[in-house]
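Re: export button greyed out
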Amino acid sequence: MELFDDHRKLFGTATLMFVGLTIMVAILPAIRNQEDNRPLPGAVPLSTEATKGKAVFVANGCVACHTQQVRNVDMDKVWGSRPSVAADYAGITRTDFWRNTATLMGTERTGPDLTDIGTRQPSKDWNLVHLYNPRIVVKESVMPAYPWLFTAKKEPSKSDVVVNVPAEYLKSKDDKIVATQDALYLLAYLQSLKQTKLPEAPGFLYKREDKKEAANATNAAPDGQALFAANCQACHQANGEGLPGAFPPLKGSPVVTGDNLELYVDIIMNGYDARPGYGAMPPIGTNMGFTENEVAAIINHERTSWGNEAKTVTPEEIKKIIDAVKLKAAK
Amino acid sequence: MKSFIFFSARILLITPWLLRFSAAQAQNMKVSHFSFSSTKAGIWLIFIIAFALLAAAFALKNKVAALRKNYRKMDDRQRENILKEHTLQLNSRQIERLLRYKNKKIQGGMHSVILLIPVFIFLAVSTATAQAAPGTESGSLLSESGIIITIVLVLIPILAALTILIVKIRNAMNQQRNRLRREEAEKLAIYLQNLPDEEVDTILRKRKAALDYSLTHRELSGNEPAEDSKGLLNINREAGVPIVAVKKKALPRPNIDPSLSRLVLWYLGCATCWLLLGTTIGEYIGIKFVAPDADHVSWLSFGRLRPVHTNSVFWGWASLGMLGLGYYIVPRVSNTKLFSIKMGWYALYLINASVIIGSICLMAGINNAGGEYREYVWPVMLLFGIGLALSLYNYIKTIAARTTREIYISNWYMVAAIIFTIVIALAAYIPSWQNGLGETIIQGYYMHQGVGMWFMLFTLGIVYYFLPQQLNKPIYSYSLGILAFWTQILFYTLIGSHHFVFSAIPWWLQTVAIVGSMGMAIPVIAGTTNFLMTFKGAWYKVSDSYTLPFFLVGIIFYFTGSMQGTAEAFRFTNLIWHFTDFTVAHSHLTMYGIICFFLWACIYAVVPRLTGKEPPQITVGAHFWLALIGLMFYSIPLMYGGTLKGLLWMSGKPFIEGVVQMAPYWLWRAIGGSLMWLSHLFFAYNMYKMIAGKEALDIREAAIQQLEKSATPIA
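Workaround output, generated via the alternate export path:
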């Protein structure tokens, strides 16, 4: 055939076909998505610090292990309250003259998704100590340590942000680990990663129907241990002993085992920053939208583990307290 | 072949069992606390170096002992026997030359000089240094990084000096060995010269007659002459237990322009360097999954090294390997000369520069903000792009000047691959459509087209040339190749977004990608059928060849790896496998199982033809089996563990349980990766032997040459 024997026609045809398909499945959809989407009304643009922190995130290739996309499937529910939509990324434009747009959606989830990490784990103390060496707070973690984002000083000044690093992770016992500006920028970026509220968000697909029905049938309570592992363990540790100087122990804690349920629920729902020796606790319950069932399950797990032997609670009594502390928080 | 299949099958069966076994053990397994900066590691390192030096010293000692044995005085009878033996081993042509010389009755002067090289001095020096080297350690100071750096800095020149010393000694000994052999040749020459005529008649003429005697070949076959003029017989000249199968040697192609040959060899040599470098980094980051605190250096952290690994094996190893083979194939099948050798060199410089600068940038934290395989910033990628454009122009100009009417299908695939890759790179780096989700849509398109339209399409083109050549028969069906070509363009272009199924990109685009992935079955099955049917009737050649097993593995993975890709694209499989280590296993099965194996097959096919030197069979075998077994150990545990991890996520377990659960599979991956890495060392050694290997002096040939030389001035 003449087409196949003339290199101009042959390669011309192949190129036309390829370019045509490229325009149809890549260029035009890309342009349409770029033109048609706008950031959500409630979306907060990145602050100057967070923008610098994003640059640190990009430079260290964090996207190799951390995605930033909540897929519209049920298993991704743990990463956000709703699936990510095009508008979530619409505000992201070219980084600079040298670098492309950084949506940082990622393709590999060796570490947790970070779409909503600012809601899930906003604690400054935890994030800094975790960046210094993740294994201080999560023994099983395989994440790299980032000691070059910190400096060791013998006598830190007042303005320095000192990180509570256990002695076994220090080169010299007199060292104090101080976060560099880059670490604080990165922290600001991580804290800024929050899903914007969307009233009529699309639902999740592939729901675990069978399990739900079973749960409804037996009216079983949520799994307190799993909730603790997902929401509390990173700081208070699996053995309930916390991290000296950073996160208080729950084992033998008067708040956990005592009778002041109102304080206990208030801490879970609204956070706590009353003890100078420890870091501030974020309002994890409000951030994650805990129900009375979930709060009761967590309390019961904490009251009956690690040698704690305190009276268990019912969701009904917790509901009342939640309503009360909500009002208090609103004031 | 059969045993090969059985073996692979056995590996497949055993591995899951092993995995489960180790999984049970590893439930309690914690992250290893190995670190290069710990005292233990320092002592181990020094121990390993000391051991290596001892081994080297021992090897040298053996060599010297062997040399000394040669020196030992032999009594005259022994010597005469040896010389006589040499005389009897002269081949017919050498006897003829000797007789011609004898007939001229020319006496030539002889002088022999014997030089003794004081090898023992070298040996003494080297062993002394070897013992001194590791002695620089001292107790607790070793945990200080400053001390460690100093020790390493001291060790580097010592090691370098030792390496140079060993190389020098080796060279000296080789020279010495050849000198001894030359000396023996001289004695042989004298012996031959002094042979009395009657003895010449009785021994040599008889011997020559005997040597020259051949059957008429008509005893059984009649008057048709039958001889192995085409080299069909494959005779093992070193009789003995065949530890390594004897494979057919490549036939040199006499009519290859030496300057083109040099260009191709440089492409393949550079590619080999990038393979070594890229996979060393890959091996290291694989180990980091098991020992995350191995180092705390920002330039070597996982997030920065991972793209260095992927980009250097992509743009350094595979791309240079493919282009180099392309520079050989395009002029061959066009039956003309390459348009411009010079342009080929420029392309090589540019691509190497791109990968070197790109790797340094990535380690320094300068990247393109996200997208996989798109990590090089645009000025770096531009260098690569210009290299591609130069190669494209060069190829097309060569094809335009072809002396055949048709364009062989290899050229379709290869030229189209370069054109498409330039289009892909432009689409990926032009900023006009990259805001918001535009970036993601382009990223899906880019990362998959880069794999499928660059590596796969180009490699298929190479295989369409070398597979028929190695089987010495035409491709089974030209038209199946054409069908695969057009359907690959039609379907492959659509499938990029299957990396973002369930993400925020338009649902219809995800569906198109999944449908396109299913359509890929057509070109894959067409290609596989075509290759396997080309093997039909020539399967016996597999055991005879050291390139065909590589082709066969490549074909098997072409089918399984590609179809696995199709299976992974479905919505349900995305639930289990997306984001898990399964993807990593898949990309290695394809990029390594298909592309690397095909490239190795073609490199082993072409390099001996260009240089006339063969790789040692045993190291080719080691390369093949280590790579194959290593790939299995690498990918099967990751697929198994990735599946378990996906199921764990689906059942709503805390994320960290998935990390704990993966520990044994990551260990297996590191083991498999180490085997793969080891195989690359063998490959690099084979490349060295094929390109720069030296052969021992042929005693008999040297003796005859010397006689001729001594005869010339007087005659």
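Chain A has 15 helices and three strands. The button fix ships in the next patch.
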